[in-house]
Write a structure and sequence with these properties.
This protein is mainly alpha-helical. It has one domain. The termini are far apart. The chain has 14 helices and no strands. It is globular, with a radius of gyration of 21 Å.
Length: 311
């Protein structure tokens, strides 16, 4: 196996296992640290380390406009998306949270349809299948018993998807500097929300919570994201984004084996339906349309020889 193939395999394993395990990590961290405060400090640590590393490497700093846009995108994706998920895990089991977060491609496809281009027939099938799975999953006792958690777990992926869509339109610093600025701004948004809610440390956090927090900051926000960025630049987009339907499986297994979580037969069916929908949408977005294929054929045709006298 070549060095590049080995790096690709290790990056995939890091993305699958680390991101899949962060949902259990969140549950352990918030056992003795308030959820919004914990997420804010997690992003602050990870964002500061990445920002300092990039400054040392003399990366260009974001402009004021880019900081403002990072505040918008970071507030939606990390504040609403990650913060909402973390807050909901006070009541929702980590495996179910991971499955509901996996619906991000469904909401993103719908939002792109409203603002740019309506989904294809195959994407509509994926959306319909996914919504059926979401409805079935919300019939789970764990979600029905905690309506606030259920609402937050539906709103969090929508907020993440909306922020993702805006990130394609707004002027944000390029590469890792953009993500560092989003983490720092998302941390600020979550800190404000934590203070408004009156969150504070009333006692020294347990060793388990501190270890989980460090794991989320270093491994979840830095290492796994770096692996994801490497894969985006090295392999096809379908393989790079395959975490969307691998992470929930890892999260459910860890929740059952490590945290003693349970899930009903109906819940397993709902999980299978949602993951199937994500696969359908993912591959539908990778398949070029007939017009795109024709345009590519036109671009590949050789140009006619220039007429006499043309330069």
């Amino acid at each position: 196996m070549t060095k590049q193939k080995t790096t690709i395999v290790l990056s995939l394993l890091a993305m699958y296992l680390i991101w899949g395990s962060t949902y259990l990590g969140i549950r352990l961290a918030i056992a003795s640290i308030p959820p919004l405060l914990m997420t804010s400090m997690r992003l602050l640590l990870a964002g500061s380390l990445l920002f300092l590393f990039l400054v040392i490497r003399r990366q260009s700093l974001p402009s004021w406009r880019q900081w403002r846009n990072a505040l918008i995108v970071g507030g939606l994706m990390l504040g609403g998306g990650l913060g909402g998920t973390t807050f909901a895990e006070q009541w929702v089991e980590s495996g179910l949270a991971a499955v509901l977060v996996a619906t991000v491609p469904l909401w993103a496809t719908l939002m792109v349809g409203v603002s740019e281009k309506w989904p294809s027939r195959q994407e509509w099938v994926g959306i319909a299948v996914g919504l059926v799975g979401v409805v079935l999953l919300n019939a789970e006792d764990n979600l029905r018993a905690n309506p606030l958690g259920a609402v937050l777990m539906l709103a969090a992926p929508i907020s993440w998807a909306f922020g993702s869509m805006l990130s394609r339109r707004l002027d944000i610093a390029k590469g890792s500097m953009g993500f560092a600025s989003e983490m720092l701004m998302g941390s600020a948004v979550l800190l404000v929300l934590a203070l408004v809610r009156g969150e504070r440390l009333t006692a020294v956090p347990t060793t388990q919570s501190i270890v989980a927090w460090l794991y989320l900051a270093i491994f979840g926000s830095l290492i796994a994201f770096s692996a994801y960025m490497y894969l985006l630049q090295t392999v096809n987009i379908t393989l790079a984004t395959s975490y969307a339907y691998v992470n929930p499986v890892v999260a459910v297994l860890l929740g059952v084996l490590v945290a003693g979580e349970t899930i009903s037969g109906l819940g397993m069916v709902a999980i299978a339906i949602i993951l199937s929908a994500v696969v359908i949408i993912t591959f539908a977005q990778r398949r070029p349309s007939a017009k795109t294929k024709e345009r590519e054929r036109e671009e590949r045709r050789p140009l006619p020889e220039p007429l006499q006298g043309e330069q």
